[in-house]
Amino acid sequence: MAPIGTIHYLVVAAALFILGVIGVLTRRNVVIVLMSIELILNAVNLNLVAFSRLWGLHGQVFAVFVITDAAAEAAVGLGILIAFFRNKETVNVDEVNLMKW
Amino acid sequence: MQPVATTFFFYMLSGLAILGGVLVITRKNAVHSALALILSLLALAGLYLMLYAPFVAGVQIILYAGGIMVLFLFVIMLVNLERSQKEEQFNQQWIAGLLAAAALGALFIAIYVKGQKLFPQRILQMPEESNTQQVAVLLYGNYMFSFEIASLLLLVAIIGAVVMAKKRI
């Protein structure tokens, strides 16, 4: 079997990214959509860390910044979810249709 | 220190990460999804360790698996999900969504096939003993300004979350 190189990690990251995209585009539950966004961010983080093995530590620093952003996004997104649930008594994304044409 | 059984651990951890991802997007119960996501995040932390990034692995476990996922679980308990479990789980545009994801996958495969030759093969050996120190030097040196901006972003996120979740503003 071939030794594990950077390309193996990139393939895993691409698979996780696609899983996250499928979750965002097809699920109705807002909580699971937010979790899929976390999955996408983690796929990007894996890419950054895998490339930091080749090009120095800057990728790891950037991964830490991405984790910070993910925390901020999760906090605000879940706050919006609570406000939405209080108004509409539902957690389905397709019932947020006030601005639909 | 020379790594042992790299191939085995790589395939085990990436298999766990992808299994967790599949479970996240297929489970009906949001709590099960959250637990599967924790599995995926822990497997990714193991992959970071294999990439000689112990600091990022620690941050992943403490912040993601310990912080963000607890936030998720709290919100799942606050929000009544009993009813939504009996409803349809996938939205009406799920075919279009799957097609878009398939197009993205085709793009990734095309990049993999075309770019495999161009890909650098060298592996930089990094001293894992001082990883945290080196990350800190970069974080407080080159990226000082970004670090301060990140703290400001977190402050804004705290205020935003409190304002959003408050009953009456």
Give the arrangement of secondary structure elements.
The complex is a heterodimer of chains A (about 100) and B (about 170).
Chain A: H1 6-26, H2 30-55, H3 58-88
Helix pairs in contact in A: 1-2, 2-3
Chain B: H1 6-26, H2 30-50, H3 54-78, H4 82-86, H5 94-115, H6 131-140, H7 144-165
Helix pairs in contact in B: 1-2, 2-3
Low-confidence runs of chain B (pLDDT<50, min 5 residues)?
Answer: none
Fraction of residues in H or I helices of chain A? over 70%
Structural class of chain B: mainly alpha
CATH superfamily of the largest domain in chain B: NADH-ubiquinone/plastoquinone oxidoreductase chain 6, subunit NuoJ
What is the residue-averaged pLDDT of chain A?
A: 89
- How large, in whole angstroms, is the Cα Rg of chain A? 17 Å
How many separate structural domains of chain B? Answer: 2
Oligomer: heterodimer
CATH architecture of the largest domain in chain B: Up-down Bundle
Helix amount of chain B: over 70%
Q: What distance separates the N and C termini of chain B?
A: 56 Å
SSE topology string of chain B: HHHHHHH
Radius of gyration of chain B: 20 Å
Strand content of chain A: under 5%
Percent strand of chain B equals under 5%
